[in-house]
């Protein structure tokens, strides 16, 4: 089963993108995230869309 969300560090590993690139995509709304407590999670479907060029 594929996870529905990843931590920033796990998203870096899974995507091959840099942390700065992910934070920039979060800031400009291209990457959908959720905050759970103090942890920021990146939705896997959003990361996939970003990489595939859908956003």
UniProtKB/TrEMBL annotation:
It comes from the Bacteria. InterPro entries: HTH_17. Pfam families: HTH_17. Residues 6-53 form the Helix-turn-helix domain. This is Helix-turn-helix domain-containing protein. It comes from Novosphingobium aerophilum. The lineage of its organism: Bacteria, Pseudomonadati, Pseudomonadota, Alphaproteobacteria, Sphingomonadales.
